[in-house]
Amino acid sequence: MDKNYIPDVPLSFNQAFEVFCEGRSGAGPIWDHILQYWNESLRRPDKFLFLKYEEMMAEPHQNLRKLAEFIRCPFSEEEEKTGVIEQIIELCSLKKLKELDVNKKGEGFSNIENEIFFRKGVVGDWKNNMTPEMAERLDELTREKLHGCGLTFSSKEQRQPS
């Protein structure tokens, strides 16, 4: 049997957690993807921008400016003064994205409805879905898989026990 095989039936959260921890998915282990993109962002910073969700949520204006500069479309003083950054942040907010018809009714890969990818968008909400044991297992797996690559998480991002 293919090591990345996932049954074509809805999985419970616990089953999905096991599949994730085992590195099984249609696209392969997520750790491989993270490391590939991280390493490319170090090797070719002009071609790969590595952003962390927690940092984007904590400092959206700074990260949007960083993204704009990366794609060589920095904001002008006029755009900054007239609130263009705030408008973009609002248009890209989880609330706005959830309201788009394609995300309410559309389907992506494996006949999974797009709306399932939009939860609360709150940093730390994992505590409402994962047991402390699951969190510790995921933390240990993260440390193991990313050890020595230079990718770190700030203390604000570290999981705190419930």
From TrEMBL:
Keywords: Transferase. This is Sulfotransferase. Belongs to the sulfotransferase 1 family. Residues 10-150 form the Sulfotransferase domain. GO terms for molecular function: sulfotransferase activity. SUPFAM superfamilies: P-loop containing nucleoside triphosphate hydrolases. Coiled coil: none annotated. PANTHER family: SULFOTRANSFERASE SULT. It is an enzyme of class 2 (transferase). Pfam families: Sulfotransfer_1. It comes from Rhynchospora pubera. Its EC number is 2.8.2.-.
